[in-house]
Amino acid sequence: MTEERREHETYQSYFKGTYWQNMTFVRPGEFYRADQADELIIAETGSGIIVSIYDVDVHVGGLAHLILPKDLVRDFSKFQEKNADLISFARAPLDNLIKALKQKGAGKHRVKVRIYGGADLMEDSFDIGLKSAVFVQKDILEKGLKLITQDVGGSHCRRVHFFPYTGRLERYPMRRKQDREMLWAREKDYLNGVEEKFRGIK
Question: What is the pTM assigned to this prediction?
Fold first, then answer.
């Protein structure tokens, strides 16, 4: 698979011809819930965290994609003193996914949670990946959810394919320089947009 994948310009072009399911791509700050056998949810991340949640009894699951805003990362030790709206904004993808899953009958004590991401990327002097991982891990613990798998840290990016009807998940490391650069640029654009949105709000 690795050799064949190298012949394609992007991961997207390779995987588009591999699966028959309808694909939904989840970007930073987004979430998606699904409960149909013909759906596939995809996310790829560098510093951010992809959260997968699945309830085997009702065949429903989803992905949330979080990354900690710069203002929270810069003074992580005083996190709780920061703007409450910004903290809520950072938590929103996971909170909204959990709410959407509950609407489909998912049970708090049945759902299984997996997290991926938190890589140490280029030019990241604030440890965005590490702090995003700690932030999500703490939030999951405080919500009383069961974290069954985590693959966080390191220097490589990740791509996740999640099949919500069965709960099956495939993880692909993204080690090519062009993939790292693409994801780092995407995440910087997202973080700059968040910073602009909350500029001057304390």
Answer: 0.88
